[in-house]
Amino acid sequence: MSDGYLPYAADAEQSLTGEELLVLQRQYEREMPQARVQTKFNYAWGLIKSTSKREQRSGVKLMHEIYDEHNERRRECMYYLAIGYYKMGEYSNARVFVEQLLALEPGNAQARSLHGLIDDKVARDGLIGLAVSGGVLALAGVAIAALFKKRST
């Protein structure tokens, strides 16, 4: 990829088509109430890849259920939970899961790359927040100065 990140970035940035997600949803619903773990995982993965925050939240919820109930799938779940939280803008939660994964697999290039993506986003959002805060403070200073000038005349 030209942005310097490994191919995992497609997981964080690309969504499935509506038709692809519908296939996963139908499979999941056909198997209910006892859907196979892989079917549930696939549907959760598809929801997390969605552009809809509501669908992303549903995907994260399903992925958490797998994470809690199936120890053998925790590693995969950590990665996709980190992506889900990243996509929803919940960077502290995303960081928790990617750091758990890195604690288990320090050499995991996908997780390291995702960690960098999260850090970059937090830094960018932090700078934007500082700029907005600075602008608000500057406006407040101008307003206070105008009030004092008006009172002194």
Automatic annotation (TrEMBL):
Keywords: Membrane, Mitochondrion, Mitochondrion outer membrane, TPR repeat, Transmembrane, Transmembrane helix
Membrane topology type: Single-pass membrane protein
Listed CDD domains: Fis1 (cd12212)
Major localization class: mitochondrion
Transmembrane segments: 127-148
Coiled coil ranges: none
Keyword Plastid: no
Record InterPro entries: Fis1, Fis1_cytosol, Fis1_TPR_C, Fis1_TPR_N, TPR-like_helical_dom_sf, TPR_rpt
Top-level taxon of origin: Eukaryota
Protein localization: Mitochondrion outer membrane
GO biological-process terms attached to the record: autophagy of mitochondrion; mitochondrial fission; peroxisome fission
GO cellular-component term (any): peroxisomal membrane
TPR repeats mapped onto the chain: 75-108
Domain notes: The C-terminus is required for mitochondrial localization, while the N-terminus is necessary for mitochondrial fission.
Similarity-based family: Belongs to the FIS1 family.
Summary of the function given for this chain in its UniProt record: Has a role in mitochondrial fission.
Protein name, UniProt field: Mitochondrial fission 1 protein
Record organism: Coemansia biformis
Lineage start: Eukaryota, Fungi, Fungi incertae sedis, Zoopagomycota, Kickxellomycotina
